[in-house]
Amino acid sequence: MEAHYFIGIKIPAFAAAALEQARSSWGMDRHKRYTAPEDMHLTLLFIGNDPHEEIAQAAEALKEIDAAAFELTINGIGVFGNPATPRIVYAATGESEALRKLQANVKEKILKFQMNPDLKPFVPHITLAAKWKGGPPIEPDWQLEPLTFPVDSFAIFRIAPGHKPKYIEKYTYHLKEGV
Fold first, then answer.
1. Helices and strands, counts by H and E, the chain
2. DSSP state of 27
3. Which residues contact residue 50 at a Cβ distance below 8 angstroms, ignoring those fewer than 6 apart?
4. How far apart are CA 96 and CA 149, in angstroms?
5. pTM assigned to the model
6. Is 125 a catalytic residue?
7. N or C: fewer beta carbons within 10 Å in the chain?
8. Is position 143 within any domain?
9. What does DSSP say about strands 147-151 and 125-132: parallel, antiparallel, or unpaired?
10. Is residue 11 part of a domain?
11. CATH of the domain at 101
12. Where exactly are the transmembrane stretches of this chain (predicted)?
């Protein structure tokens, strides 16, 4: 299988542990996949495969991004799909102009290459559970205390199915001090 990539923000260990603890308290058992704490991230741009072997060039282009570190707050839970049988359950973030600008800069750099990134509208989220496996519909009562963490870097990740961690940082970019 050829390598697939995405650009994202790794969630700090303390925040990932808090998300895992909250998720465990919800008694979720109707999904096929649960994101391990060490794999929790916020995707800025999904790239997929690299048919023209441009990932190293794209990595160089991303070095040009000049952005300051910022804070991000997880402030709720959302779903993709039917709320009673959600395809994805995720931790949602509050609105952040710094995050939106970073995502737009990343997208602009990657679009210069022959890659085929996912260009759906950006919905900042941290996937907690995926792939509904069936059973009766749920009536979610998911509680999550707001949680703020610093964002001081982003990375290109290679997806490594069957490995732990599943998402391997290949290139990391540090943001300027500013938090």
1. 3, 9
2. T
3. 2, 3, 5, 115
4. 13
5. 0.94
6. yes
7. N
8. yes
9. unpaired
10. yes
11. 3.90.1140.10
12. none
- Rounded mean pLDDT for each run of 10 residues along the chain, 179 residues in total: 91 97 88 95 96 95 96 95 93 95 97 94 96 85 92 97 94 86
Q: Which residues contact 152 (CB under 8 A, 6 or more apart)?
A: 69, 174, 175, 177, 179
| Residue 149: partners with Cβ closer than 8 Å, 6 or more residues away | 11, 12, 14, 15, 71, 72, 74
Q: Residue 178: what pLDDT?
A: 60
Q: Is residue 72 part of a domain?
A: yes
- The tokens 């700090």 sit on which residue? 12
Chain centre distance of CA 35 = 11
- Of the listed 4, 31, 41, 52, which one is catalytic? 41
pLDDT of amino acid 177: 84
Please state, in angstroms and rounded to a whole number, the distance separating the CA atoms of residues 42 and 10.
7
Give, rounded to a whole angstrom, the gap between the first and last alpha carbons of the chain: 40
Contact 59, 158 (CB under 8 A): no
Domain membership flag for residue 36? yes
Q: Which residues pair with 158 in a beta bridge?
A: 5, 168
Residues 88-120 as b or e (16 or more Cβ within 10 Å = b):
bbbbbbeebebbeebbebbbebbeebebebeee
Q: Which of 31, 125, 163, 174 is catalytic?
A: 125
Task: Give me the number of domains the chain comprises.
Answer: 1
Tell me the residue range of the domain where 151 lies: 4-174
